[in-house]
Amino acid sequence: MIFLDDFNKADMEKALAAIGEKPFRGRQIYKWMYGKNVFEFEKMTDLSICLREKLNHNYRFRKFVLLDKKESLIDNSVKLLFGLDDSNRIESVILEDDGRFTGCVSTQVGCRMGCSFCNTSKIGLIRNLTPGEIVRQVLMMNSILAGRKRSLSNIVFMGMGEPLDNLENLKIAIDIILDSDGLNFSHRKVTVSTCGLADELKYLYNEMDTPVNLAVSLNFTNDSLRKTFMPINSKYNLKYLLETLRNLPVQKRKRITIEYVLLKGINDSINDAKQLAKLLKELPVKINLIPYNASDGMYSSPEQHVINMFQKSLQDAGYSAFIRKSLGKDIMGACGQLYADYKNKY
């Protein structure tokens, strides 16, 4: 079975040529999908009935169903549970802050990175999401926000999964999101987050015509501790990761976001803050401090005064350091909490 929502615009044109149609028909279908959120040939009214029948015979769209929607009573965040073709599930989150809406998008069913403080890692990796499954999360979020006469202003690939572990599909999805015939987002409004896949980072920046924003989950300031909590550090240690960041062709006026999850009594000392400042020297960065969002009782967040002191130490060293708001905690939609209710499936 060939699914059209696995294709970018160029491949869509080739798919239509393969059944004897003009390539512009592929662009028409592409615009219906990503410009109008239509994934049924019968509703593509500027296509002839004959062509729609031919398309139904040769191609399909993947099943993508909204199964559940939970709304925060604290901060208006919305967590969405989607059902996929193979009965797997993923979660995405709409985050509202100061009137701006950000879509937190998933790239995998589960994750194989094994970060011990992240709920998604407990699932393990089940499979990668296809480009269409990635993009349709954004379309569904905008459809929901349309009821409020609003739309997403930003997209962050910080949901379930490690985006750079699904690199080819991620790249196609980003192409669709940035394309003027697709979702028409600015590259300045799209951020890819990674736990530190350094070689994949190099590939992403070399292959993308317009690099999007980058966020790196560093979280620890020495290899021993980072390897304990983040197994990826065994492959890409801090020295190699930071050298990679220093050599990326980051555009002028863009800064890499360093994400640092604060775990009480583990990585929250003033010495940790000072060491972090040394590690990031001469890198064009801003730092997001993320108080740990509880999920299973293994860890806890530092007290607020400890977080404030950590921030002040970084600011005194000349860094822009921000304490990220933990949005969606009451619906298990905050950073590190996504799980898609897999405990009730397996």
Describe the structure in your own words.
- With 346 residues, the protein is α/β, with parallel strands linked by helices.
- 32% of the residues lie in helices and 21% in strands.
- The chain has 10 helices and 14 strands.
- The protein has helices spanning 9-17, 23-36, 49-58, 131-146, 167-178, 198-207, 223-229, 238-247, 270-279, 304-316, and strands at 2-3, 59-60, 64-71, 78-84, 89-97, 100-104, 108-110, 125-128, 154-157, 190-194, 213-217, 256-262, 285-291, 321-323.
- The strands form 3 sheets. Strands 3-4-5-6-9-10-11-12-13-14 form a 10-stranded mixed β-sheet, with helices on one face. It has a two-stranded parallel ribbon with strand order 1-2. Strands 7-8 form a two-stranded antiparallel ribbon.
- Strand 9 (154-157), helix 5 and strand 10 form a beta-alpha-beta unit.
- Helix 4 crosses helix 5, helix 6 packs parallel to helix 8 (238-247) and helix 9 (270-279) runs parallel beside helix 10.
- The longest helix has 16 residues, at 131-146.
- 43% of the residues are buried.
Keywords:
346 residues; two-stranded parallel ribbon; globular
Shape: globular
- Unreliable stretches covering 5 or more consecutive residues: none
Strand order of the largest sheet: 3-4-5-6-9-10-11-12-13-14
Quaternary organisation of the protein chains: single chain
Largest sheet: 10 strands, mixed
Q: CA-to-CA gap between the ends?
A: 28 Å
- Average the pLDDT over all residues and give the rounded result: 94
The DSSP helix count reads 10
Helix percentage range: 25-40%
Number of strands: 14
